[in-house]
Specification:
By secondary structure, the chain is mainly beta. The chain has one helix spanning about 65-75; strands at about 10-20, 35-45, 50-55, 80. The longest helix has 11 residues, at about 65-75.
């Protein structure tokens, strides 16, 4: 359900990654990846709220994996906020 001609996110954009998956009573809480998929999330910042967003399954949380996805989905010149040091 992706519109092929959609425009990249612009302005200020928050980018992060996290795990997504179902409930497993044998799994520890938190960022335990067992049984979950790693996803990238990019959201436009609009004042105190959120704007459009992009989600994608990632191979890993490295710059090598996340970088091309961000470049493809965020307009060049946008301000990108991450938790990277």
């Amino acid at each position: 359900m992706v519109v092929p001609e959609r425009e990249p996110l612009r302005g200020e954009v928050e980018v992060d990654e996290g795990f997504l998956g179902g409930v497993n009573p044998d799994r520890k809480a938190g960022r335990d990846p067992v049984g979950k998929r790693l996803v990238g999330v990019a959201v436009e910042v609009r004042g105190t709220g959120s704007g459009r967003l992009r989600l994608a399954v990632l191979q890993d949380a490295s710059k090598r994996s996340l970088g091309p996805w961000v470049a493809e989905n965020v307009e060049s010149g946008a301000i990108v906020h991450t938790d990277d040091e």
